[in-house]
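Q: Joint fold for the lines below.
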Amino acid sequence: MTNTLHRFGAPESLQDDYIVFAMAARGINEEGAPAKLQTFLRLALQHQPINVGNAVKGGIFRPAKDLTPLAHWRRREGVDPAAVVESIDSCTTVAAVFDDPTKLEACLADLRQADLGISINVSALTDEARTCCQRAGIVRHSVEYSLGFHGDLNRLPDRHVLELSTMCGHGMVSHNFAKKMLDWVKEGRRNPQQAATYLARFCTCGIFNPTRATRILEEARVGR
Amino acid sequence: MGAIYIDTAVNRATVSQDECVECYACYRGMSKEHLNPTVVRTIRGFLKLLRPRFDPEPDVCPTDAPTPQELTWPRIVRRAFSDSLVPHESTGVHGRGTEEVKTNDVTNRVGEGEAGFTIEFGRPGVGVRFRDIQTMSMALASLPIAFEKKNPVFSLMAPVTGTIREDILQEKVLSAIVELKTPLAHVRQVLRVVEAVAPTLETIVSIGVATRCDAQGDNLLEPLLKREGYTVHRGKTNLGLGRRPAVAPA
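A: Joint structure:
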């Protein structure tokens, strides 16, 4: 889940973006982890996350393998979150994405209470994450800071494309596809919510934030 | 990567084998319809003559065209580092194959007074060849640091010199992480080297640096990074809720 670390954007662009994820340490406390990871996601689902995912099986938004041409007019947006929970059958990483810090805070309080014994991390603005932890009665153990991108930055696309594509740190949301969706929204061929859903389907881990993506696409549409 | 393009000579989508990093995003990420390719091409060819606006779902392949190829060494390295669903053989971990500080509450990988660096190449979405990773790892090897052993790049590298095995140097991957640990006193020195080498590479370098917090949740790294002029508003916070299983009494 280093894939959550380098989400591009100014602090004000990240205030609706909070990822909480859980994993076990390989070879140390992985025994019984699948059941604990299921409990983690069930607890998270009580607080209305906007996306959840199992890193090896997919998230709410995922591609369909057997569409008919009718899909161009009528298409299911996502799978039942309960199916994501049920799909956990191995020692994987699971994540929930929130667009509201108060929901994250309530989720953290529940997780503390549940005492699952597996590692839980919050990937977000560090000050916001720390505040949420404190309110939930948690003292953070370790922190990893993103120092951003370095080197020949001419190789990078523009701000809006980066804000969208870096929401899948594994690089499954390509710059070209993000650019295409920005263009389609500007041309009125799709609305921001539809475009955000297309992008989210490529993120296997389920850490793509459709709320933030919709906002970014709308901001780009009106030239902000 | 931009590896897929229309080859106008044959009027078919073609994959540049040199640019493709075998991430499988096209194969796995696209939704599929399984329509007959000849019928689809005929209809599209006819509509092209009339020039109506063609507005299909952008993430649907009507013919299920992308097919994975059988990979052999050294090209198989591309998939190991690019496909987030393939666990790395050296660590057993998916994605970039490393737990870094995500499980630090259990592993104590980065201890008090230490900084753990994740120096990532190719991200976001640019890709990197191992020869560029080697340029950096060789520069870092001369510093007072210890490369992290439970890391996929480490398994391909000579830890003393930072050289990477020669047969994969030209291979391109979506991204890869070199991980190292150093006392907080040497953080500035490591950052100087990374900043100096990064512009010489044909890729982008993303830097992450981690540390252990004290009983109040504070750390010495954050003020140090701010003094060095870095913006540190975003990161990953390990809540400390993980623990080692209790050892059964003998």
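Q: Anything notable?
A: The first strand of chain A starts at residue 18 and ends at 23. The radius of gyration of chain A is 18 Å.
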